[in-house]
């Protein structure tokens, strides 16, 4: 019902929904104030000073990207760390699925049935890295993670909407060429006059404006749109003259919400090119951290109690049916806030109150193994097809063209109601639904799909949700509160960023906490040192 | 003077100039006739039937992609081939430069000074493959050439134009966000009314239209543009609220011809995503052909005479100062037409007359070795920066992020006058010019560039030009004539395609000729067989 193709996205929805079911709403407008702000856009990597002989212990709750980042930096500075992880695996929502992997979804546990092959993997969680996410890229660089280009936008992919064109899929190339063409016509014909009224346009400006409209729409000299090679040729074009395709009426095109939604998806700051992703799977970042870390990581340990102490934190966890309690100077906690609020603790009530109000995204991804890369026969290599059905998207692999088989993303649904519909199905039903819906985009879809995995993040064990969802109001009133430490306890993770659901937020939240710890340690050290001299 | 950023491109210029100095002008508009044409968009790969015991010999003139394609297919069908190549190397305008390579430019011979390293290469000719170029991709698939995504469009790259903003570079991200924002405002405010007058829009259509305008421009609820996160934040955005950047006036933005030119470059059918390129260099396609071929390739042989015979072709060439003549049943000739017309021959006068009228593009590319990948510190990975200076473009490597060094494209000039300006310089002067101009885009450019290569294709030995340039008139009157054989002689190469400068045209021209040869052979075989039976 609330699929982006069923109702056009508002500006806010674009930010909130498309950006991975997370809230990116804490946006200030400061056109008039530009130059007065001081927060740097690009954070310098945190560089902790080595501890001078002192022994400091840090407990890190959760082995996702924020926890691994913290451990890596703390270790290098001489802190003694320990990571307590509730699940059977490290990585959190960086989860690349391959042959034999266990998917710990409550009610739908699966073993990944993909063939064992290097190219047959599925990034069920984080899948792309925008080029301006310099913090996570800092670790890709530092830890030697090979990257490949990733693309959201491929003109050869399809848009399919039951509401138009008899529900038949249309190449994005054709759709966009026609929309641009007719919008360009309108601009050239009418908006120019309006612009003169509205803007301080002189004759030369108006000429430039018309030039823009022509280039935007690929208009002919008389400012008409009569089709464009941009749509691809109906026939010919290489060894015979190219024949321009017939055009579709603008009103019909606009009837699909692609025009007001997905057509502009790759304009969103975090979805625009250049995007990248590690060659071979996103979890290569996790593996790269693990290669460096000596920190002990305890898996299958569920935290049951967090106690702030006058000079530290005590954490109790359950392992193989027994409670263990550990004490540390600091605790960095990236357990999802909605779970933290249910853990026994003496964390301040105001702190817990914010956690309880913090929402959590629901998101379903389905990965499908195809026995043939049939999309390549349709000139598709990488990119996203869009549909108004629940699956919302089909992704084609950006890597390993020409291999025998491939893994498609067969559904990506971030609208809570839709994700709940998938969650209510058995795993085989989800796969069947993904195939049935995908068949509207690729008529012979079913014959190629041989197996699949489904992940409803709102039911994944020890997470019960995807990115945190901050309401605009809560972000204003509660973000700074959760970002500040409670005693020696820090909440971290992408949940403590303005862009939940992105690794950049996870890294930067850890850096933020580490910088604060270092500041406190420096003060403590000074006091101590003064003490010694006294 | 005619740089795209100095004068906005017309629709025709977009097609003619941006598409690699080749002519893509033979475009028919057939909106009303759709369905009546029969030429398939996607050619099936040519599949020659094996010769049945007969000995047929083919002389192929030129070892570019069309010649290699022909040899590969003919060999497999049992034809006996020989390739005669004028230069010291195979590949033609598929030329990937690495440490030590000889660049045979007349008047500016160079040895490529790049360090010897797998990632330090420069595609001085063909550099990208659109995903719908299924013929060249057929060989990538068949011959096992690994591909990577390539991208023309990276929002983090710059546009720089001396005419605006004091000549300061602006991120494409910022430029495009503001243009879209203000154009979106105009659309929402005024074009809607015009649309109602112009189009059969009802109230619902109008609502959708406004939704489009809002999504296009990232407008606020009151249909205003007040900046956008699409431009990137002025500050914050991850661990602190994002501050929206100030906007620039539309008239100023339009003053740069980026708005009517390069901003729409990646809409051109052959420049739109998905684009790909072989991992490690475009000449991996050439190497893949060579691994399969047993055909003898004679390098350094200049053709001096082509004689059509009653039943074949005789070709004379000069090798090490001596003339050699070879006879064959057919000759496939991909020597540039403007050179063929100067070779002694008995080719029909009408045929030669078309060749003499066929233009040839002028194109300069400069490759620069950077000792540090400074662009990555500016969040740039892949893509193109645009400037109104002669260098026109700077390309950043799409591959091997984080390596110590990298090869930039430092100039790509396809406007004849500009390319001639580069051709008139010494090689060191060209590099100095590229660095000086690049400094307007990257202030510290000079300190990073340690060596370079320059290739003015109009002066490359044995080519004297880039892609063929067909006038619209000549394409109508002469293309079919050159495409047809003259006796047993076929002119092939991308010059005999509607998209000169693309490997797709080279392959398809060869397929076209091979299909015709097979047709003739089938007829001949039938006649012969009839003769035997008589």
Automatic annotation (TrEMBL), chains A, B:
Enzyme class, broadest EC rank: oxidoreductase
Alphabetic keyword roster: Auxin biosynthesis, Signal
Domain of life assignment: Bacteria
Listed SUPFAM superfamilies: FAD-linked reductases, C-terminal domain, FAD/NAD(P)-binding domain
GO molecular function: tryptophan 2-monooxygenase activity
Protein name, as recorded: Tryptophan 2-monooxygenase
E.C. code: 1.13.12.3
One of the protein's GO biological processes: auxin biosynthetic process
InterPro entries found in the cross-reference section: Amino_oxidase, FAD/NAD-bd_sf, Flavin_monoamine_oxidase
């Amino acid at each position: 019902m609330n699929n982006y193709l069923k109702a056009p996205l508002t500006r806010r929805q674009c930010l909130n929904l498309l950006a991975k079911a997370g809230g990116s709403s804490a946006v200030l407008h400061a056109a008039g104030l530009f130059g007065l702000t001081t927060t740097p856009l690009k954070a310098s990597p945190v560089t902790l000073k080595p501890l001078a002989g002192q022994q400091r212990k840090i407990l890190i709750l959760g082995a996702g990207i924020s926890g691994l980042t913290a451990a890596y930096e703390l270790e290098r500075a001489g802190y003694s760390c320990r990571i307590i992880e509730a699940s059977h695996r490290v990585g959190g929502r960086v989860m690349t699925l391959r042959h034999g992997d266990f998917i710990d979804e409550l009610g739908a546990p699966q073993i990944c049935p993909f063939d064992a092959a290097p190219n047959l993997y599925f990034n069920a969680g984080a899948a792309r890295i925008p080029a301006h996410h310099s913090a996570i890229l800092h670790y890709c660089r530092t830890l030697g993670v090979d990257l490949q280009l990733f693309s959201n936008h491929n003109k050869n992919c399809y848009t399919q909407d039951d509401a138009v064109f008899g529900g038949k899929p249309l190449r994005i190339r054709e759709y966009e060429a026609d929309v641009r063409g007719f919008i360009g016509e309108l601009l050239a014909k009418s908006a120019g006059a309006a612009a003169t009224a509205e803007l301080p346009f002189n004759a030369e400006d108006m000429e430039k404006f018309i030039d823009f409209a022509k280039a935007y729409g690929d208009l002919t000299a008389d400012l008409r749109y009569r089709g464009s090679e941009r749509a691809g040729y109906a026939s010919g074009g290489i060894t015979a003259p190219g024949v321009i395709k017939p055009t579709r009426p603008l009103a019909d095109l606009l009837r699909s919400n692609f025009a007001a939604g997905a057509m502009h998806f790759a304009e969103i700051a975090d979805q625009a090119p250049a995007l990248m992703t590690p060659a071979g799977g996103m979890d290569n970042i996790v593996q790269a951290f693990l290669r460096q870390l000596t920190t002990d990581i305890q898996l299958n340990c569920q935290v049951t109690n967090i106690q702030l102490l006058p000079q530290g934190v005590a954490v109790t966890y359950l392992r193989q049916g027994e409670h263990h309690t550990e004490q540390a100077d600091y605790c960095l906690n990236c357990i999802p806030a909605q779970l933290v609020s249910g853990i026994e603790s003496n964390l301040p009530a105001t702190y817990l109150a914010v956690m309880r109000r913090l929402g959590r995204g629901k998101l379903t991804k389905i990965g499908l193994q195809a026995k043939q890369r049939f999309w390549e026969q349709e000139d598709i290599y990488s990119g996203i097809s869009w549909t108004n059905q629940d699956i919302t998207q089909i992704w084609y692999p950006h890597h390993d063209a020409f291999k025998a088989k491939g893994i498609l993303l067969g559904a990506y649904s971030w609208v809570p109601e839709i994700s709940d519909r998938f969650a209510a199905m058995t795993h085989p039903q989800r796969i069947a639904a993904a195939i049935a819906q995908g068949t509207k985009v690729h008529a012979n879809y079913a014959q190629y799909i041989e197996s699949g995995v489904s992940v409803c993040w709102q039911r994944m064990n020890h997470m019960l949700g995807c990115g945190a969802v901050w309401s605009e109001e809560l972000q204003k009133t509660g973000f700074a509160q959760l970002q500040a430490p409670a005693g020696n306890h820090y909440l971290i993770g992408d949940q403590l960023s303005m862009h939940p659901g992105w690794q950049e937020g996870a890294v930067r939240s850890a850096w933020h906490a580490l910088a604060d710890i270092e500041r406190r340690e420096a003060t403590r050290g000074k006091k101590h040192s003064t003490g010694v001299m006294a």
